Amino acid sequence: VLTYPHKFDGFLTSDDLYNNSIYKSFLFSSHNKEYNEMLKAFLETKNIKINNSNYVDDYFLRTLLRERTNFCFLPASMCKELELPYMQDKNLIISSNIYLSTLKDTPLNEADLNLYQFIKDYYKKHQAHYIVK
C-alpha cells in the first residue's frame, strides 16, 4: 500500500497523486533493487511522477517512516504496526500472493532442503509484514 506525508492528512485524494505540480518524494529500501524497479514501473504506468527518490536501509527506513515526510510503498500490515495511514484507492494497492508448499513424495537434496528451510524461516520470522489469507 502507499503511505503518504503527514501534510496530506485528511485531504489527499488519488487525483493529487496525478497532479504534476505537487512535489512527490519517495522512500525506497536500498537493498531491494528489483522490487524498487517494479514499484517505479507501477507508478509510471499510473502516470504518477516521482520528483525525488531516496534509498535507505531497512532500519533507517522505519525511522524515516515515523517522520512521514515521504511517500512509500509498504506491506499493509507494516502500516498497521507503525500506525501509518495509507491510500485506500484500490488502483494504487499492489497485491501479490506468496505460496509456501512442501513436496510430498520427492525428497529434496541437502542444498534444496536448506534453501527451502531458509525461505520458510524467513517468512515465518517476518510474517507480521504479510497479510495471510
Write the layout of secondary structure elements.
Layout: E1 2-3, H1 14-18, E2 25-29, H2 33-45, E3 52-56, H3 58-67, E4 72-73, H4 76-82, H5 110-125
Parallel strand pairs: 2-3
Antiparallel strand pairs: 1-4
Beta-strand content estimate: 5-15%
Uncertain stretches: none
- How many β-strands, per DSSP? 4
Global geometry: elongated
Describe, in plain words, how this protein is organized in 3D.
The chain has 133 residues and is of the alpha+beta class. It has two domains: 2-92; 97-133. Helices cover 38% and strands 11% of the residues. It contains five helices and four strands; from the N terminus they run βαβαβαβαα. The protein has a two-stranded antiparallel sheet. The chain has a two-stranded parallel sheet with strand order 2-3. Strand 2 (25-29), helix 2 and strand 3 (52-56) form a beta-alpha-beta unit. The protein is elongated. It starts with a strand and ends in an 8-residue tail after the last helix. The model has no long low-confidence stretch (mean pLDDT 84). This is LysR family transcriptional regulator.
